[in-house]
Design a protein that fits this description.
Layout lengths: L1 H4 L5 H26 L4 H20 L3 H21 L5 H23 L6 H6 L7 H20 L1 H9 L1 H6 L4 H23 L4 H15 L3 H26 L3 H20 L1 H25 L1
C-alpha cells in the first residue's frame, strides 16, 4: 500500500493525476457525440489542426490558449460549414482542413525553428509539467462542457440521432452542430498537454465505445463514458509512474485493455446494445416532432 501511495507525496504527481482524471472524463463525455455521429476521425483531425495554432502562437509570442484555441475553433467551424453543404463528406472535409493546418504548423517550425513550448510535449503530451493553473483550467473546461451538455441535452440528442427530422421539427441544427464543434475544440485544447496531438483521438473514442457496448440508453452512455474516461485517466497515470512509461500512452493502453475485456464479456449482447442505441434515440426525435406539430 505504501508503494502505491508513495507518488502522491509529490505535488507534480498529484497535479498530474487530477488533470488526467478530469481530462479522461471530459474526453469520455464529448466522445459520446463524436462516436454516435460517426465522426471518430474528427478528434484526430482537430488535434492536428490545433497543432497548427500551437506553432503559430509559439512563433508569434501569442498566448497558447488564445492562439491555438482560436485556430482550433476556426478549424472546427470550417469543417462544420463544409460538411453541412454536403458537397463532400465529413471525413473528406476533416482530412483536407486539419491535415493542411498540421502541415502548416510543421512548416512554420521548419522555417522559423522551434520556439516557446516544447515541440515534443505538444505532440506526445507532458502531464508531469502541468501547473496548478493548468489543473484548474482543465477542471473549468470540464465543468463548462458538462453544463453545455446539461442545458442542451435534448437538442444535442435529436441532432445526433436524426438531424434531418430534428431540423424539420424546429431544432436549430446548424447552431447545435457549431456548438458541438466548439465544445470539441475546447476539449481537445484542454487535454492536449496531457495526451499530446497523437493520442487524443483514442481517449475520445475508447470510453464512448466501451460505454456503447454496455448500455442502449443514451443518458446512461453519457454517464458511463464519463466515468470510464476518468477511470482510465486515473489508473493510467498511476501505472505510468510505477512502470516508468509515458502517461499518455499508458492511459490509452488502459482504455484499450478495458475495451478488450468488455468486448470479450459482452460478445453479441454488446453488438445488440450498439444497434439498440439508434432505436433508443428514434422515439425521442418522434416526441419532439409531435410536440412541434
Amino acid at each position: 500500500m505504501d508503494t502505491l501511495l508513495q507518488p502522491f507525496e509529490f505535488e507534480f504527481f498529484r497535479n498530474g493525476v487530477v488533470v488526467a482524471t478530469f481530462a479522461g472524463a471530459l474526453c469520455g463525455l464529448v466522445g459520446v457525440y463524436v462516436v454516435l455521429k460517426g465522426m471518430s476521425y474528427i478528434g484526430h483531425g482537430l488535434s492536428h489542426a490545433i497543432f497548427g495554432g500551437f506553432a503559430a502562437s509559439s512563433l508569434l509570442g501569442v498566448n497558447f490558449l488564445l492562439g491555438a484555441g482560436a485556430w482550433g475553433v476556426a478549424s472546427a467551424l470550417m469543417i462544420n460549414g463544409v460538411t453541412r453543404r454536403r458537397v463532400i463528406g465529413a471525413d473528406a472535409a476533416i482530412g483536407v482542413i486539419t491535415t493542411a493546418s498540421f502541415a502548416l504548423g510543421l512548416a512554420l517550425f521548419a522555417v522559423f525553428g522551434r520556439a516557446g513550448r516544447s515541440f515534443d510535449a505538444a505532440l506526445f503530451g507532458s502531464i508531469l509539467g502541468v501547473s496548478r493553473s493548468d489543473v484548474w483550467a482543465v477542471i473549468a473546461v470540464t465543468a463548462a462542457v458538462a453544463l453545455v451538455v446539461f442545458l442542451f441535452y435534448r437538442p444535442l440528442l435529436f441532432t445526433t440521432f436524426d438531424p434531418e427530422v430534428a431540423e424539420a421539427s424546429g431544432v436549430p441544427t446548424a447552431r447545435i452542430d457549431a456548438l458541438l464543434m466548439v465544445v470539441l475544440a475546447a476539449s481537445i485544447l484542454a487535454t492536449m498537454q496531457v495526451l499530446g496531438v497523437t493520442l487524443i483521438a483514442a481517449t475520445l473514442v475508447i470510453p464512448a465505445t466501451v460505454a456503447r457496448m454496455l448500455t442502449d440508453s443514451f443518458s446512461r452512455m453519457l454517464l458511463l463514458a464519463t466515468g470510464i474516461g476518468a477511470f482510465t485517466g486515473f489508473v493510467g497515470m498511476n501505472l505510468s509512474y510505477h512502470l516508468d512509461v509515458q502517461s499518455g500512452p499508458t492511459i490509452v493502453l488502459v482504455g484499450a485493455a478495458l475495451f478488450g475485456v468488455v468486448f470479450a464479456i459482452t460478445g453479441r449482447r454488446g453488438l445488440h446494445r450498439t444497434a439498440g442505441m439508434q432505436e433508443h434515440g428514434a422515439p425521442a426525435v418522434k416526441d419532439l416532432r409531435t410536440t412541434a406539430g
